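User: Hello! My lab partner asked me to get a predicted holo structure for this protein. The small molecule is magnesium ion, SMILES included with the sequence. Please write out the structure tokens.
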Amino acid sequence: MTVTDTTTNKPSSGVRRLTTARAMVEAIAQEMERDPSVFVMGEDVGAYGGIFGSTTGLLERFGSERVMDTPISETGFIGAGIGAAIEGMRPIVELMFVDFFGVCMDQIYNHMAKIHYESGGHVKVPMVLMAAVGGGYSDGAQHSQCLWGTFAHLPGMKVVVPSNPADAKGLMIAAIRDDNPVIYLFHKGVMGLPWMAKNSRAIGPVPEEPYELPIGKAAVVREGRDATVVTLSLSVHHTLDVADELAAQGIDVEVIDLRSLVPLDGETVLASVAKTGRLVVVDEDYRSFGLSGELAALIAEHDPGMLRAPLVRVAVPDVPIPYARPLERFVLPTPERIKSGIVSVVGR
Amino acid sequence: MTVTDTTTNKPSSGVRRLTTARAMVEAIAQEMERDPSVFVMGEDVGAYGGIFGSTTGLLERFGSERVMDTPISETGFIGAGIGAAIEGMRPIVELMFVDFFGVCMDQIYNHMAKIHYESGGHVKVPMVLMAAVGGGYSDGAQHSQCLWGTFAHLPGMKVVVPSNPADAKGLMIAAIRDDNPVIYLFHKGVMGLPWMAKNSRAIGPVPEEPYELPIGKAAVVREGRDATVVTLSLSVHHTLDVADELAAQGIDVEVIDLRSLVPLDGETVLASVAKTGRLVVVDEDYRSFGLSGELAALIAEHDPGMLRAPLVRVAVPDVPIPYARPLERFVLPTPERIKSGIVSVVGR
Amino acid sequence: MGEDIKVQLYTTMVRIRTYEEAILREYHRDKSPVFDIGAGRIPGEMHLSAGQEPVAAGLCAHLRPDDAITAPHRPHHLALAHGVDMKRMTAEIFGRESGLGRGKGGHMHLFDPAVHFGCSGIIAQGAPTAVGAALAFKRQGSDRVAVSVVGEGAANQGGFHESLNLASLWRLPVVFVIEDNGWGISVPRSASTSVPSNIDRAAGYAMPGELVEDNSVDGVYEAAGRAVTRARKGEGPTLLEIRTIRLWGHFEGDAQAYRGEELAQAQASDPLPIYEQRLLKDGLLDEAAVAAIKEQAVNEVEDAIAFALSSAEPAPEEALEDVFA
Amino acid sequence: MGEDIKVQLYTTMVRIRTYEEAILREYHRDKSPVFDIGAGRIPGEMHLSAGQEPVAAGLCAHLRPDDAITAPHRPHHLALAHGVDMKRMTAEIFGRESGLGRGKGGHMHLFDPAVHFGCSGIIAQGAPTAVGAALAFKRQGSDRVAVSVVGEGAANQGGFHESLNLASLWRLPVVFVIEDNGWGISVPRSASTSVPSNIDRAAGYAMPGELVEDNSVDGVYEAAGRAVTRARKGEGPTLLEIRTIRLWGHFEGDAQAYRGEELAQAQASDPLPIYEQRLLKDGLLDEAAVAAIKEQAVNEVEDAIAFALSSAEPAPEEALEDVFA
Ligand SMILES: Cc1ncc(C[n+]2csc(CCOP(=O)(O)OP(=O)(O)O)c2C)c(N)n1
Ligand SMILES: Cc1ncc(C[n+]2csc(CCOP(=O)(O)OP(=O)(O)O)c2C)c(N)n1
Ligand SMILES: [Mg+2]
Ligand SMILES: [Mg+2]
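Assistant: Hello! Below are the structure tokens for the protein in complex with magnesium ion.
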């Protein structure tokens, strides 16, 4: 499943457009050019180019010493990333699917995320751990999860979740340059893969030069008065589509793309909810004990009176992701569910 | 660190009192007597009797075929528990400290918790996974966590957290008899261990006969009008102490012991907050993306207007648990922090 | 090794190959001209086992329906050889209500308690479960056996080693089978495994190891027979490694550019025609018998597909059921 | 092996033992008559290394300050032998602001970047980190070496095996050292490990394995010398297992009822007096020299404790610092 060249195109306007996958690769390549301590490691990141195209072409360009295929030993190679980071390298380690975190979580949360703290700040672990997330193509209960809430609950790692090519590039460069461990979660559905249903915004303009997007700043991707939808990743696009549709019905939705869970940009959320008084959280992760709860607490701690209508959560309803298409569609935050969530929050 | 006999005593009233550890052991023993498919497995559960006394005396009584010490191979033996459960046994598997979940989480959340669902309900995994949680004795960042929010976020497992001896027994028996996987988290500070600072309620009356406490029912452990404190585990006791103290100052606190996170007894919480209009969540787990958020969402979905004052969260402020005593006390939900949380929510 | 057995092994292999070819066809049916992994009658990842039939046939010939087996992400050959209901398995792969998992599992999550079959999409994580099944069998005083099958890539996953150690330590009736098809997706064995063969690791767990080098079903049958017998007699676990081949891509859609020369070699050593020729030459089969075996396989497989297609899709709200028993 | 080295090894062992005895004293100081794990100047779990000095002394004699070492939950002997600052380490154990981790780490989390020392309370999970340090050293073109030390109990943890395979596959400068003290808390080796020695597992990763059977510092010194030299020359990893003894409890407060006879045997084979006698008999030391070495050790250790005690406790709010760089 190789990303083909059709994924880069320069439309007549002259603005260069890339898929999210290509934007990520460009970010990594530019940082590898700039900084010899940056290297990439993971399963099938070499000749294969990453199962979801996140490393396509890097092996050819940088060689196998800097783009290393690994055995299926996630504890081993993520731990190796940590050790290398401590000793002066800046590894980018790919965990193929985030769903596999369970075989290596100790390295992630007890080591990668805690060594800096335990050392009283004397040891740094500058490392990017990237992983594919998300469902929608019937990959079943062990290959379709988002799980960002799991990482965000545990201290010591930043959690970045880009939704589009330009953000993906800027956030990747920021993550690589960050002196802290950064979990970088990319949804398969925003990568612009030729072999998966494409989202129209999975390809978009991306500046050619390297640039950083600050980690921790949400984007108000659509302004509106009637309700705030806070979301991230693929759901941003579904929400924007729904918002366009609802605009025609006179419902004016503000859409916030969080872009990172840690740090969480509470200010942007609060400012928006202060304006609209209504909140829908659209989250492809499991509903309970996750993002939607955290946003509810943010508001309740600040001023519970801000909400003029009950919170609406459009999330996976605490069931494993089922395989069959009608079942999976039922649990994912589809445009239909987002739409009815917004309609119910505005009470029309 | 062996639980000594001083932990059982019959006060003059004739009511038998046990420590939480002894209550758990009694529950396990009674179930092992009743049902030959029940067995215990884990590190140091045999001759040692469980590092925190959760299996003391079982080896002597049931022999090494039913009380099995394991190598330090959590993925291996938790997976073995799953396989045995599928094939008709009812294993009770101990993960010594919950902090070690990272070396075996895949078995827990991708297998133990999902097989029933993936099989369309045709395969059952009746298994108890018990683990010690909590800090307060300077055991550092890798041996002091609660992490219940992590398990509660992921579907397919019940999450039980007893706070006292009688509940510990009834919930353990219910967990063993449950046809589902149950995570059973016991706080070291409620076990009544002779070698750890004791909580006065870590020893209490426990009926001798086997009994089940239904999983999913919270307990209103103190009724009050002015504010609701929702909490669990060791923090229940701190909160009750604080509530007594505040009663003297005319602040009348209702205290809810959740007893389980999955299922979460939302009804009991909502009924209480409807009455008091004020909510403090006391949670020894990390603050963000966890229990306190989930409770905020519960209310915000139901009726955000229920809260007459901002939510107060008394939790671990998203830092790893530090070692030194002043640092650790600063991040744990100590009575002082609970008290000031309640005082601030009632606005006096 | 009797003549009947050889015909039986051949028949099993034909049945598997026929199945995989049919699934291949059905999988791609609605995925052209543009391949979209989520489209069609069978969506999602699809890992087919063509080339690895000798492992399943030779191994499962020794198993009883009450023996347990945990298979990896590439499970069809093992499921069929162990007697999983083909109709309900197919219905599961098509995501239907009548499927083994009522459409909740999919092709990596096939569970059939009737024959104690399970699988998992997480690498090597079926091994501990097999150890646990064996522990139950031993405690229950039976002579049942549990089998764990993983790929050679999976043999570098820590949980696999933990399982070997536990099974040996507790002298459990487990047979560990490594299907060494030379590849873990695009990573060749030489880039994943520090020893020439995983059999070199058996001694590290004080268990016998046996390598079948030629992907021959007879070789698998004999080695597996020894291993299953040991286990059934209470003599503990065995590690088997079978050098086999992955005839097709890692999953469907895999362009396999990384394979180069080796792909043609693999295709030239397809075990099915080789075994067929052997049995014809040895006079155990004639052309008519071959044709009959193939026809029967086709009929059974097409029936199973028809069954799946005629079954209803699950109602969406059923997604909320079966989380808890 | 020169005479100077022997005296140096002895001196290191004395220094370690003196340290552990002092920590033992300080740890229990405010924990009687009732032992409360959270009480006193040094709260929390305390895993002391008395009896295991030969491992640290013999191994670290070959290491340079720029070589990395990852130690397990029982780290003091390795930290001291590798040159971790004793004062700041002690201050950390006492939870002081001047500690290595400013009081955030504690005795299982000692990090001293000056000598590339780290440890972890999670079993075997230092091994992957050592592999990564070695990977960095190799990429950086240096001849630096990384050492991973774990217990024999830890050698049954999957991540340890993954690390062996990676180091061998990538031919990295790693020395894997297993301190086999016969116990993983209360579980004897025979109940955790399916082979007589972990050295039987080295072949499974195509690396040399060497067993030091007698807990002798000379034996460790020689075996470790060969392993470190191999690593430094770019010849890849080695697995060493040292049969050592745990003189005291798993942690302080452990009543060790499970140990029975073996405890007295262990105490009778304390390596320190044995080695001291040897050096005295061989004339490498005399009583005066022994006394001087011990006195120096006591002075250094008591100074370190005094330093710790005179350091301030961290301010509570500092708990919120150092999460992110
Ligand atoms: C823990 C884990 N890591 C990675 C993967 C992704 N993955 C699926 S199959 C596979 C290759 C498996 O190779 P092998 O074990 O040799 O089996 P084969 O596919 O060759 O049959 C990988 C890396 C996974 N499913 N689980
Ligand atoms: C993953 C994990 N499991 C369990 C433990 C609890 N634990 C701490 S030390 C120990 C025993 C370790 O034995 P060994 O590796 O032989 O080292 P020793 O204590 O003998 O030095 C155990 C089980 C842990 N810290 N981490
Ligand atoms: Mg393979
Ligand atoms: Mg040991």
